[in-house]
Amino acid sequence: MKIIIDAMGGDFAPEQPVLGALEALKEYDAEIILVGDETKIREIAEHHQLSMDNERLSIVHTEEFITMEDAPLSVIRQKHGSSMSIGLRMLAEGKGDAFISAGNTGALHAGSSLIVRRIKGIKRSAIASVLPCANPTLLIDSGANIEVDAAQLHQFAVMGSIYMNKQFGVEDPRVGLLNNGTESTKGTKLQLEAYDRLTGDDTINFVGNVEAKQVPYGVCDVLVTDGFTGNILLKSIEGTASYLMKQIKGLYTRNALTKLSALPLKDGIKQLKSSFDASEYGGAPLLGLSKPVIKAHGSSDATAIKNAVRQAIRFINTEIIVEIVLQTVKTPEPVSAETTAAE
Amino acid sequence: MKIIIDAMGGDFAPEQPVLGALEALKEYDAEIILVGDETKIREIAEHHQLSMDNERLSIVHTEEFITMEDAPLSVIRQKHGSSMSIGLRMLAEGKGDAFISAGNTGALHAGSSLIVRRIKGIKRSAIASVLPCANPTLLIDSGANIEVDAAQLHQFAVMGSIYMNKQFGVEDPRVGLLNNGTESTKGTKLQLEAYDRLTGDDTINFVGNVEAKQVPYGVCDVLVTDGFTGNILLKSIEGTASYLMKQIKGLYTRNALTKLSALPLKDGIKQLKSSFDASEYGGAPLLGLSKPVIKAHGSSDATAIKNAVRQAIRFINTEIIVEIVLQTVKTPEPVSAETTAAE
Known about the structure:
Two copies of one chain form a homodimer.
Chain A: E1 2-6, H1 15-27, E2 31-36, H2 38-47, E3 57-61, H3 83-92, E4 98-101, H4 105-116, E5 126-131, E6 137-140, H5 150-168, E7 174-178, H6 189-200, E8 205-210, E9 222-224, H7 227-252, H8 256-262, H9 266-275, E10 284-287, E11 293-295, H10 302-317, H11 320-330
Parallel strand pairs in A: 1-2, 1-4, 2-3, 4-11, 6-9, 7-8, 7-9
Antiparallel strand pairs in A: 5-6, 5-10, 10-11
Helix pairs in contact in A: 1-10, 3-4, 5-6, 5-11
């Protein structure tokens, strides 16, 4: 099994992807291919006094990479020599079994749709993020497709259910539709249509509309929405948690007494904080593609990259894509003319 | 000045609205008209050994009221004898200067548009809620109009700016557009068009797109969005804060030591919790109407109702509506044919 890692993607690249790759090599049996600037990659290993001498490790050299500011389509246009573009092509050509990048999300989504290609019958690939909740909840789409139709939401529900079952071992995952109320009459035309479709599909366990305030309590395992609303939900949970944790830290560090008081609570607070840390769950899978692609968080450290490798291995081993293909064949959707890959 | 209060609206009606009205009578100079079941209203006062004998207090009797399950249009159709319907008609007819209800939001929005009427030139009235943030941020629309156009978002920005200036004393309020990224190219057609309109209006202080994760840090004073997205944002902030505070409480109450440790932090935690309590800021104004209507939180207690009375008094005194009328005259919008009142 070969995992391709974009060494140049993310806020702390190439250092953290390289360190994460080296950690993963120690823990897992997989081969790893780092795509990026070979000189820099070797310098990082040297600096940390880590050996690169491992027959399961190889480097594909390129000096070009996608920045956070680059347009999504740059990955197939101006920057086809970038680490992300090369990695995706290697995956498409079967030179690896999964691709991981902490780089530009829009570019990864567009590039993987165009280079790796979607599963036949899947209208849009989506980014699925595990929400920091009482129990892991998969938000699909969490930001890739800002405008979707009800048929696409339906496919997100099916793919999300398969992923939560295979990757997290959730039996008969509960699917919720993010909406502005729990009643079946709530939402715009999009939610009303999606509600009907989801209700009508007995291959999934649809539990109805879910309000945003219920989400942190883990009322469903798969939460279906368009990418615009998904972004707003994900970011507001992250922002509120980060703001509150900062305020609480402020309370503790007020004076000597409060500092002392905080000691017996420290572990619990730390645990709570880490439960709101997306990197605990590895990265966000792009579902609907014909090969596994994982978007690691932009601020991924070595551990997050290592976790993404573990996730990629499980993604491959549990044959999630085979299952999505089988389900898509069972419930075919007409592919509409306006369904383009790059949005 | 006469404030009309829906005695039958909200989760704790009629008790809490009645108690809130009696508290407000003591604190403020205004006259109060309670609309609701007179027998029940008098029973509540008696039960709490409070006198109803005040020349500034009157009761308009009705036994009918709008429930949380009633359809929005029931306020003008099946239930025109309800406390909400009567209260709104009294406001429209000049028998009072402001109306407060903690009842069904959809009914209040539809009813006030149809009975109280919008300001000429305003395409939609909106519900504006103060977000629990580092500093008060007015979210407009927070849930009334689930689908809007860019011209409506523009009017929300103008009305929200006036409200934050007059009601909260914010000089030159910073207006942000809720979006899935800060770049000007982000969002759907709606956000792109709204961005252009807001940039082009030099009567407001537009600071650009705002991501959901920035919101709790108070990066703007007025946050403009459609009612669907506004609902998702508001509810996810509330849900995340409530979930986290519960978790933290769980840490404290784990054992005797943690309980003891929590003592020096207690006040701070309490304060933090109350900063996420919407009732601190009174209710949510419906902006765009020709008279002041305030939606108090469904779970309003007497204090929240009293605060809503204070807010209504300030709403009237600061002539917010006059200012909105003046601004609307300055920048007229063609009223499109499909603009109907009741959504």
